[in-house]
Design brief:
Shape: globular
Helix content: 25-40%
Radius of gyration: 20 Å
Number of strands: 10
Distance between the termini: 18 Å
Structural class: alpha/beta
Number of domains: 2
Largest sheet: 8 strands, mixed
């Protein structure tokens, strides 16, 4: 993962103004002077919010969002997609916090961070009452932060069992910092336990990646039954639930039939955007590089952009 740098042309597009307007306002002192590298103006994603405020434009988001990627079936590719999605939001200027809820630390690794390179995880926050700010890591992107995970997080389920308000501890820990981020994105392990329940109750939106097969389709039934129980027990309901097809190949008959079944039974939740089968996604994840940096012109990057556009329809995107 590398720091994103924009040209004046791309930066002006993200601000929804022309390049000529950007340069004119800089020359007249109405906008900050940009950094210069080898004689060329360069701009960074973390500057976008400040520029929008100076321009008197709407912020990138008007409502803070807390989102969790979850599926009880493993192997759906949710970790790589959640990492690439969050990174792309940061590229586009949002203040983003990623939270790894899986002791395997795969989300952490997708960002190119060694799981053995840090000492604190959510275990220290939820069990030892550490300040959540103390476990937030910087990344190469100034506006993308991470709460990482490794095997030190493993005992958290057992430790939570005997604690008071054990299901709400993450929500309460986030209360003091969540307004600093436009989006908080969590990646959960493929199971239902106290840690994932903490994640669910701390979020207001759910993303469910589904492979185009009937095992994934059956898994949705179990997921929605579990959500119904959580709704009843905790008086909780998500503002939005998004189901999306991942690793989709329209040339496979089983994919087409699974898609038809999802459209028939889950049409109210199914996203129009599908993440198509693309070997570059797996390659990028294995190398710890987001797909929009590893292969920005590939269909995996295009699908992530379409995915974001469906969730944030007013967000300017440069390709």
């Amino acid at each position: 993962m590398e720091q994103q740098v924009y040209t004046a042309k791309d930066f002006s597009t993200l601000l929804d103004i022309t390049k000529a307007t950007l340069l004119k306002m800089e020359a007249e002192g109405e906008l900050p002077q940009p950094r210069v590298n080898d004689g060329a103006r360069i701009y960074f994603p973390h500057d976008i919010s400040a520029y929008l405020q100076i321009l008197g434009k709407e912020p990138l988001v008007t409502q803070k969002r807390r989102q969790i990627f979850l599926n009880f079936k493993g192997g759906t590719g949710k970790t790589s997609i959640s990492a690439f999605y969050a990174f792309r939001l940061a590229q586009l200027g949002m203040q983003v916090l990623l939270i790894d809820l899986d002791p395997q630390g795969h989300l952490t690794q997708c960002l190119g961070i060694d799981p053995d390179s840090f000492d604190a995880t959510l275990y220290n926050v939820l069990i030892e009452r550490a300040d959540i700010r103390d476990v937030i890591m910087d990344t190469e992107m100034k506006n993308l932060k991470l709460i990482p995970a490794n095997l030190d997080l493993s005992p958290v389920e057992l430790a939570l069992t005997s604690m008071n308000a054990r299901e709400q501890r993450l929500r309460k820990s986030l209360a003091g910092i969540q307004d600093a981020y436009d989006v908080i994105v969590m990646d959960a392990s493929p199971s239902i336990g106290l840690l994932n329940l903490n994640g669910i109750l701390a979020c207001n939106e759910l993303f469910v990646p589904v492979l185009a097969d009937f095992l994934s389709y059956h898994g949705l039934k179990i997921l929605f039954e579990t959500l119904a129980t959580i709704e009843e027990d905790f008086d909780f309901i998500f503002d939005n639930i998004y189901i999306f097809l991942n690793n989709y190949n329209a040339s496979h008959n089983i994919c087409l039939r699974a898609k038809e079944a999802l459209e028939e039974h889950y049409s109210g939740y199914l996203m129009k955007t599908m993440i198509r089968q693309d070997v570059k996604i797996a390659e990028a994840a294995s190398m710890g590089v987001p797909i929009t940096q590893y292969a920005p012109k590939n269909r995996g990057s295009s699908d992530i952009n379409d995915f974001i556009k469906e969730i944030f329809p007013n967000l300017p995107i440069v390709f």
